Amino acid sequence: MTKKYIELNTFLNIKGIATSGGNAKHIIRNEEVKVNGNVETRNKRKLFASDVIEYDSETFEVLEEECKKTLE
Questions:
Q1: Pairing with 39, which of 2, 47, 52, 61 sits 20 to 30 Å away (CA)?
Q2: What pTM was estimated for this model as a whole?
Q3: Domain spanning 3-71, CATH class
C-alpha cells in the first residue's frame, strides 16, 4: 500500500509560514510547531492528509492534494 505525504519543512514553506528552508528549520528547531497536538522538532517529519499543524495560534490541516511524495 502506498501513502502520499509532505515533509513538515516543505509544508511550512507552501503555507507561507516560513520564508525559506532555513527559516522553516529555525521555526521547527525552536519548538514553535505542533503536529497533531505534539511539539515537533524533526525537520523532515512526514505529514499525511488530515494531520493538523499548529503555529502561532493558527491551525492548518494537511490536504490530500498537498501530499506529493510516496511512502511505500
A1: 2
A2: 0.91
A3: alpha beta
DSSP assignments along the chain, one per residue: --EEEEEHHHHHHHTTS-SSHHHHHHHHHTT-EEETTEE---TT-EE-TT-EEEETTEEEE--GGG--EEE-
**3-7 vs 69-71, strand pairing mode:** antiparallel
Domain boundaries along the sequence of the chain? 3-71
Q: Grid coordinates in use for 70?
A: 510516496
pLDDT > 90? residue 66: yes
Burial class (CB in 10 A: 0-12, 13-18, 19+), 57: exposed
